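Sample intake sheet
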Amino acid sequence: MTEMMKGLIHKEKGVVELGERPVVEPGPGEILVRTTAVSVCETDYEIIESMIMPPSVGRFVGHEGVGIVERVGEGVEYFKPGDRILAPPVTPSWSSIEAQLGVPQFSRGGMAFDWCLERDGVYGTYFRLREGDMNGAKIPDNVTDTQAVMVTDMVGTAWHGVENTRIDLGATVAVFGIGPMGLCALAAAALKGAGRIFAIGTNPIGVEIARQWGATDVISYKDGDVVEQIMDLNGGCVDVTMVCGGPASAVGQAMALTRGGGELCSLNAYYDDVVIPVPAWNSGMKTVNFRGWQVTGGREIYERYLKMIALGKFDPAPLATHTFHGYDEMEACLWAKKQRDCLKPVCLL
C-alpha cells in the first residue's frame, strides 16, 4: 500500500486545501525529510494567487522548510537518518556548466527552483531534497527550528547578496524596505562593518528590529522624498544601496542615491517593469556596480550562516512574529504574512 502524507495542496488559483499526497521514496542522491517547521515567502503568494508556476497545482506548496532526515537514497554519504537538516529555496545541479561558472542557482533551465514544480513543496509531512549532500545543511544542536527556517530564504538570500557586495568599514548604507529581507540585509551590512545605516520603511515592528540590528537612522516616505531626506542627512550620496522591498520605482531611487563608484545590491523580486529615470544614472554614464542576487544554495554557504547563529553572532528569531502549530494551522500560517503586524509566520509540526 502506498504511504500517504498530509499537507497543504494548491488546488486552483488563490485556493489551498489540506489534503494527502503519496510519499515518494528518495531516489539516488535524494533525502526524504520529515518536516518540523515551515515559513512563508511572498513568492508563495505569487505562485498561489498569480499562478506564476502553473505546475504547482495539485502539489504541496512552500519552499522554506527544515526537518529531520527520515531516509536517504543511494549515494548519500554526508547525511544520515536522524540528522536535522535545512533545505534551501534553490537546489542546483552541482555537475552543471552553470555550477562550473560559479552561478549554480541558474542551472536546471535557468533557475534551480523546483519546489512545487518537479516535486512537492515543503508544506507536508515529508519533503524530498534533490542532490542532498550538496544542497542540504546540518542544523547545529543549539539552533532552534524557528531560527533555522528563517535562514532558508531570508537570511540565505540577503546574506549572500551582502556578502558579495563591497561594504568597506565605516561605509554608509541605505536599505530600501525593512521587511524580513531588508532586516537580514541590514544586519549583514552591520556585521561587515558598515557605519551609518539608513533603514527605509514604516512598519513599527520592522523599525524596532532595524534599530536593534544596526540601523542608525530610520527614514519614512511619509516625511517626504526618501532620497532627499537621506542626502540631506548624509551630506550627499551613500556608498551602498540595497533594494529589499517596495515598488519597482525603488530601483531608480537607489540609483539616484548611490554615489559614483558605489554599489547597488538588488535583493527584491519585481513583477512590474523597472524604470530608471535618466537623471538618476546620469544618462547611463553613472559608474555604479549594480547587481541583482539570487542565493546560490549549497551546503557550504548555509552551514556557515547557521554557524553564525550557533556562535551567538546573530539571532534571526525576532523575525518570527507569529507561531502556529500542527497541520490544522498550516493554512492560517500561510496567509498570516498578509497581516501588517506579521513579518514571518512559522508553523511547527
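Comment: The chain has a mean pLDDT of 96. The chain has two domains: 4-157+295-348, 165-292.
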